User: Fold this.
Amino acid sequence: MVFDEADRVATIELEKDRDVVRARSRVADAMKACGSSDLMQTRFVTAVSEVVRNALTHAGGGTLAIYAMPGQRQVGIECRDAGRGIADIDAAMVDGFTTRRGSMGRGLGGAKRLSKAFAIESSSENGTTVRMIGACSLR
Amino acid sequence: MNAAAIYAVEGVLLVSITSDITDTDIIDLQEALSKRIADTECRGVVVDISALEIVDTFVGRVLAQLTSVARLLDAETYVVGMRPAVAMTLVELGMYLPENHTALTLSHALDKMRQSGLVDGLRRG
Assistant:
């Protein structure tokens, strides 16, 4: 998944939990701008909230880029961190997997279900990058 | 705390959460609310989430914890004002919030609490 043809509409440095709120709000704006339905916006903003919080809590921060794809009525995001990476991505995608007590481990799998397209790359050298596309309507 | 406020209404505690609440705020809220429940000896809590545009797994988990803590302090919690799109998204996430009672609005929650005798200081011991 690449966003070469898309317009980058915002870049947000993820440093503290206030930035998660900002990230959600900017993605919501981008969805609104492409005429998203309430449900599609809620679904994708929730997905973004999950991956952005992961970058903050597991990697100490990262960067979120938001892309508009007006012709396709879609919004794309790329969330990149420089953390230690995820040892077993397949396991991490399964509901119930968590490395933290008290967490429910539905975040990554949930984000994938709530987005139209989902891709994740992770290594101990380069950290974790998640790319997702949210559709503004089902049709 | 300005991201959430706790009001005493008809003998229950009404918690109102604003749209820009952060993870830290919501954990602070949990602590403040537990204290207020013990101090006021109230038996009912209503958490109004109508301002929340999304509820993700973190917020869902905190809502469940808040309810569990309140229950240990002998108070029942109702979550009110959930947007339809939020309900649909939570189900897709597999989060059914089984710990929480829900009601569409504050007045529905108060009605339900009256029926079960949780309103207006019925705690006597």
Notes: The longest strand of chain A covers residues 127-135.
